[in-house]
UniProtKB/TrEMBL annotation:
One Pfam match: Aminotran_3
Family from the record: Belongs to the class-III pyridoxal-phosphate-dependent aminotransferase family.
PROSITE patterns, sorted: AA_TRANSFER_CLASS_3
InterPro entries, sorted: Aminotrans_3, Aminotrans_3_PPA_site, PyrdxlP-dep_Trfase, PyrdxlP-dep_Trfase_major, PyrdxlP-dep_Trfase_small
Keywords, sorted A to Z: Aminotransferase, Pyridoxal phosphate, Transferase
Residue spans crossing the bilayer: none
Recorded GO MF terms: pyridoxal phosphate binding; transaminase activity
Organism domain of life: Bacteria
CDD domains the UniProt entry points to: OAT_like (cd00610)
Name of this protein: Putrescine aminotransferase
Cofactor dependence: pyridoxal 5'-phosphate
Amino acid sequence: MTFMANLPPTQELQQKDAAHHLHPFTDTQELNEKGARIITRAEGVYLYDSEGNRMLDGMAGLWCVNVGYGRKEIQEAAMRQMEQLPYYNTFFMTSHPPVVALSEKLASLAPPHINHVFYGNSGSESNDTVVRMVRHYWASMGKPDKKVIIARKNAYHGSTVAAASLGGMKGMHAQGGLPIPDITHIDQPYWYGEGGDMDPADFGLMRARALEEEIDRIGEDKVAAFIAEPIQGAGGVVIPPDSYWPEIQRICDERDILLIADEVICGFGRTGNWFGSDTYQIKPDLMTIAKGLSSGYLPIAGVLVSDRVAEGFIAHGGEFAHGYTYSGHPVACAAALTNLEIMEREHIVEGVRDRAAPYLAEKWAALGDHPLIGEARSKGLVAALELTPDKAARAPFAASKGTVGLICREHCFNNGLVMRHVGDTMIIAPPLVISNSEIDELVNKAAKCLDLTLADIK
Ligand code: PLP
């Protein structure tokens, strides 16, 4: 069956979709009323829908299509691997060439103290894996009571039971009785929303020291790890003050707490280095990866594990009773390896650091002058706009938070731009290959949609 030729009419697709397809993070009643937008193809940084509309994808899918759409080389690598060996597992002492090659490549890209990788299929699974892995590590080291994992409010680490528990989204916790035991949450380093009159550097230190207070409250001998995204993505692109990460690193080192960096969004070039941990010069014991690993072309994810942790449980722990049927899937590994080869050959990470990020930073900052914007912030190729009725007070919109953001998002869709809203914060994370003229287009469209939003709420 071909999905492109003889495409049924949009309405028919929407009706069938609403009738049979339960979507993630979607209100099904609303879906029934409005119908889904049907995306049919994509090229470079552009998406095309079933009505022929072209949209600049300001979110790289879900923060993942780092090398842009339409890369034949990845498609061909996957096809070749399908022919050679479409599937075999990596359980019980078996392996295959693509997983060997990808593991070696990841060890070479990761910081020098990280040389091991454990595979899964999604960021959520990777974060599930770290929960079990850090507890297994401490038990192997003779400290089975070190079980508690400290995470942050408003963090997003995925949707499985353990990953949603690590996450700090209240709405997610409310559905299903989360979090599971032995996971606690401290406040986030969100200066714009929570910093009040404090200097950002002081605020960053204060929020980092909340970790120390939480360790003291629980007891160091009970705490296994702290997990955080270098930049909180789904929480609204929360870029921490520069004082934050060095203080977190100090606390983890002094208190013998493992540091887990969730690199699912920040990994593979998003912040202008291979990993967000490189950008913030931290030395995590574990890093969870997904999304940009294959640029979303096939599902693959993993946990990058430091020598300290790997050697600890290899030497003392016996078998790690954990794994997924598709851990290190050969076709996904072949696609990921080709994706990373493209990133290296085209110097995509350097391109973000030296060209695209500074260019976007300048244009994006200028949006801060718009009457609706309280703050325009960016780091690498991830950025946010805070919508506000009162710039000076950094005030949120009072009634039904998120409504103005939603209005803005709809204007973006209708004007050929995908920009996401988190409440009244607008966010972007475009493909890393976006050109300067495409950045101009993105920013100009965003400005137009801010004008349209302002006109609507006046
Ligand atoms: N961690 C972070 C920081 C994420 O942003 C996401 C997804 O957006 C996840 C984990 C979960 O990844 P997945 O959707 O692949 O399970």
